[in-house]
Amino acid sequence: MAGLPVVEIDKVSFGYDAARPVLQGVSLRVEPGSVVGIMGQSGCGKTTLLRLIAGWLKAGAGATRVLGESVGELDSEGLFALRRKMGMLFQFGALFTDMTVFDNVAFQMREHTDLPPELISDLVMMKLEAVGLRGAAQMMPAELSGGMARRVALARAVALDPRLMLYDEPFTGLDPISLGVIARLIRTLNDSLGQSSIVVSHDVEECFGIVDYVYFVSAGQIVAQGTPAELRGSAASFVQQFVRGEADGPIPFHYPAPGYQADLDGEETQSSSLATAQACHG
User: What range does the domain containing 176 cover?
Assistant: First the structure.
């Protein structure tokens, strides 16, 4: 994996306003040819990181470099050119519902290239073959299962052979078979197309099975990082809780509340007051 990082985030902080910091001093790297996982509980800032990498958001502090470009310094034309080198698989696929499977995959080729129709047709069928859906080319999205729709979306995302793939919760809502298929495709396509990939996911087993390196995010900060093997053996309490799916730990089961006895005493006081009021009106 020699060469400059495909993605390098250096001490990045971001917030939607001063009162709501989302990321605080985050640093991470994605090496060429690798699949990197970003994991953590909901609302910790994982998807915000993807948006910063894609240039949809601009960091308040720090530097974001992608494919050799400083994202925060690019104008709209520069961002557009950078995004053409990236592909993204959205959480629920986001297929065009009024287009066939074939036309969904062909869309980017028709919009962003001058390739002749015959070549586009061949390329679309190659991408569909890669995800096992060449036979579904003329079906409509409404006719597809959830797993099939996700595979079509993946074929569309890699249609222009992007150098960097971004996956936002790619396993959400899939049955175990479809989940395993998508996970294997992410790894296979990354390696066969010479890509680098970032996978945001809650699914520990599937993510650990395909990634080279993992960053754990909590409350907008990187709290642990390492290979899947290193993290499985980590003594860090947050990592142990997340990997094992334990209900309580550094991420507490109970939402902050007053002492339980205080609530009970309050209920007894309210019951006593109610009884007194009823007696006075009786």
Answer: 7-85+162-280
Q: Which CATH number does the domain housing residue 79 bear?
A: 3.40.50.300
Residue 82 CA to residue 34 CA, distance in Å, equals: 19
The domain total for the chain is 1
Q: Running DSSP on this structure, what letter comes out for residue 255?
A: P
Q: What is the pLDDT of residues 67-80, one digit of tens each?
A: 999 998 999 999 99
Q: What is the pTM of this model?
A: 0.82
| 1 within some domain | no
Instruction: Encode pLDDT of 112-155 as tens digits.
Output: 889 999 999 999 999 999 999 999 999 999 999 988 999 999 99
Q: What is the DSSP string of 114-140?
A: ---HHHHHHHHHHHHHHTT-GGGTT--
The DSSP call for residue 281 is: T
CB 189 within 8 A of CB 130: yes
